[in-house]
What we know:
By secondary structure, this protein is an alpha/beta fold. The chain folds into 2 domains: 2-96 and 281-328, no CATH class; 126-270 and 339-385, Vaccinia Virus protein VP39 (Rossmann fold, 3-Layer(aba) Sandwich). It has 13 helices and 7 strands. The chain has helices at 2-5, 21-49, 53-66, 73-93, 99-124, 127-142, 162-170, 188-204, 251-261, 281-302, 308-328, 340-350, 361-370, and strands spanning 148-153, 178-185, 209-215, 234-240, 265-269, 353-357, 380-385. A 7-stranded mixed beta sheet has the order 3-2-1-4-5-7-6, with helices on both faces. Helix 2 (21-49) packs parallel to helix 4 (73-93), helix 6 (127-142) runs antiparallel to helix 13 and helix 10 runs antiparallel to helix 11. The longest helix has 29 residues, at 21-49. The radius of gyration is 22 Å and the shape is elongated.
Amino acid sequence: MLSASTPAFPLAGAGAGAGDDGDTADACDGTATALHLLGLLLKCAEFISTGDLAGAGDILPEIFELSTPFGSPAARVAAFFGHALHARLLSASLRPIPIEKLKTLTLVSQMRKFHSALQAYNSITPFVKFSHFTANQAIYEALDGEDRVHVVDVDIMQGLQWPGLFHILASRPRKPLSVRVTGFGASSELLSQTGKRLAEFAASLGLPFEFNPVEGKIGNLVDLGRVGSLPNEVTVVHWMHHSLYDISGSDLGTLRVLSAVRPRLVTMVEQDMDVDQTGSFLGRFVEALHYYSALFDALGEGLGRDNLQRHQVEQQLFGCEIRNILAVGGPKRRLTGGDRVGRWGDELTRVGFEPVSLAGSPATQASLLLGYGMALASRRVGCSFS
C-alpha cells in the first residue's frame, strides 16, 4: 500500500505561520503542489516498474513543469528525480551504453566536479565531518603506541579526511616516525595533487610523510606489493561507500587484497540507504526518495535558495547519485541482504577478521558531536584481522 511506503517528502510551506492569511494560502498551495508532485513521481515509478514506458512518459512533462532545481525542497527533489526517471526511460528505449563503460566515462569527465562538490558538501553540512571524525578516532586508537603508520584509503578523492588524523597523531607525546598513505583513485593526475596537499599539511605538523598513489580499484589490483606493509609498519584500511560510481571493483578481489594486507583495522562508512539492485525498481525508487528528500529538506532549512554551494552539491553530488541509482542501476551490489556494511562485515569475518565495536572514546565523542536530541546507534563499525 502507498500509505506504508510513502516517503517523507518535503512539503513546501509546511512551517509557515498562521498569522497572515496570504502566507497561509501560499503555504497551502505549496503543500498541495508538493503532494501532487509526490503522487506523480510515485505513479511514474510504478509505470516504469511494470514496464509501461508510455504511461511513464505521459507523466514526465507535468513533473518537469511543476518542478525546478531552484525552488522549494519538494520542487528540487522532484526535478532531480524527474530527470533520473527520464534518463531511465531513455536507457530502456535506446541501445544502452554498457554500464562499466558509462562509469568509466563518468569518472574521467566529472571526477573534478565530484571532488569540488564533495568539498562544498563538507563545508556546508556536518555529515561528512562527522563520519571523518568518528572513523579517525577509531583509527587513532587502533594505532596507539605505534611508530610507523600505514593508511590505505580505498577511494581517497581529495583526502579531506586525513588532515584531521594527522593532527591528532602529531599531538601524541611521541610523534610517529613515519606516516604513509596509500590512496586509490581513478586519475593519476588527481592522485598526485591529493598527495601534494597531504604532504604539505603533514610537513606543517612535522610529520614524516609518504604518499603512495595507486590508479585503479583495490579489487582489481594485481600487484599486492603496491599496498603491502613495510617492516614494523601497522596498516589500517578506510572505505567510504557512496553511490557515485563503483569504488572497489571485484568483491572477491577486494577480499583477497584485504586478507593479504592483514590490516589492524578496517573502517567503513556508508549512506543510510539500502538501494539493493536485486530488489524491485519501485522499492529502490521509494528508498532513494526517502533518503534524498531528507537531505534536500535539511539543506533547504540551513541555506537560502540562491546559495551557490547548495546548488553545486545538489546538482553535482545528489543529482548524479540519484541518476546513477535509478537510471544506470547504481554501483554493483553483489553482496545482498541487509545493510551493506553489515554484509561486508560478514564477508570479512569469513576470511579471518573480527568485528570491532564503536564503544569507548569514538562513541563518546561522536555522541557529543551529534548534540542534544539525537542518538548514536550502537553497531559494528570495523573489523580487525585476527
